[in-house]
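Quick bug: DUF4430 domain-containing protein output formatted oddly.
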Amino acid sequence: MRPSLLLVTWTILVCSCSDTGQEKVESADTLKTDLSNTKSLDTTSKVDSNNTNKATLTLDTLPNISLGKMTLVSSGQMSPYTTIKIDGCDFDLVTNDSDTTYLATNDKKFQTPEGYKVGTRFTELPIEIQTELTKEPDWGYYFKLLSGWTLGFCEGNSCTDKYPENGSKVKWIFKRR
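Here's what came back:
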């Protein structure tokens, strides 16, 4: 059953989105998804929860998630996604039933509450982040921030050919369950 009107409240983050480097495949098959229980996203410009800006996003129709339009959400999982726009930034949205399971962007306008964007240089990150990246074979290196957003790095053909170095940049920013 599809409701005729969907109201989603998003807490707005000043974030930058850009290309994830992850493969996407197009197809004509489609699947409608109910997003009526979608949780809010923290999109404040700072981690300070007292200064949270809120915006209401009203969707007249539910996003159309195509079965053939796929994105790599982990090293061993491709999932159908749709592209949505939040505050002028493009995000890839993956849902399971009525819950968001993966939200990613490579839009350079998106900025995390910590101030990181797609394109942020590896050397601009604190040493803690530089030395504590998690490697997910054939998917990328990543670091989960306190805000819940995760910085992703893709190095080489497999995205994990080598550890990010001084010339490396954040390729995408995401949240996943």
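Actually, after a second look the formatting is fine. Residues 127-131 form the longest helix (5 residues). Closing.
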